[in-house]
Amino acid sequence: MTSRRRPALGVWAYFAIAFSLGAYFTFAAVQGSYGVFRRVEINAEAQTLRTDLAALELKVTRMENLTLRLSDTYLDLDLLDEQARSVLGMLRSDEIVVR
Fold it and tell me: Coiled coil where (predicted)?
């Protein structure tokens, strides 16, 4: 008769530890701080921030244009005409005022 030996306890422990480490690293690679899901979140947030940046740059450009038009070195005739009419309360002869 031949007797069958059971695998030693060390082999089971080795495979259990190897499986546990593999499962841990797989979980960390998918859901960890630097995992796949976090990378997708960061990319989505970056895209949102790029969109916000473009909108803010547009506002800054508009505000720079408006402040340039109000500066002493630049004369905007339309803005000057509007301010003169508002301050002096005068009209041209070809205009009609509706109150």
Answer: 39-66
